[in-house]
Design goal:
Blueprint: H1 9-22, H2 27-49, H3 54-92
Length: 101
């Protein structure tokens, strides 16, 4: 896979997750943020504790290591967009007025 083909996935996912948080939908975006954060923390830990020189390690494996994170975010993106769609439709649907009778 070519890593430069993933250019819009991360910004779109981040934007969708932030929009979900702003609209009060916090469970799924929280999962997305935790997934990315823990993935990056784990990779950083692996690189920092490696016996190889960091430059050599990055040259040999950086593209293969980043791909699973980007694909994980790509898998979450449709779910985030669906949350936004549901929230938007819910906000635009007229609520029946309650009649006191």
């Amino acid at each position: 896979t070519e890593t430069h083909q993933f250019g819009l996935l991360l910004p779109l996912s981040l934007g969708a997750a932030l929009a979900c948080v702003v609209l009060g939908r916090s469970t799924l975006p929280l999962f997305a943020f935790v997934f990315v954060g823990l993935s990056l923390a784990g990779l950083t830990w692996v690189y920092a504790t490696s016996q190889l020189d960091l430059e050599t390690y990055l040259r040999l494996s950086a593209d293969r290591v980043v791909t699973p994170i980007v694909l994980g975010v790509a898998a979450i993106l449709p779910l985030l967009l669906e949350e936004l769609s549901l929230s938007w439709r819910r906000d635009r649907t007229p609520r029946p007025e309650s009649s006191s009778g």
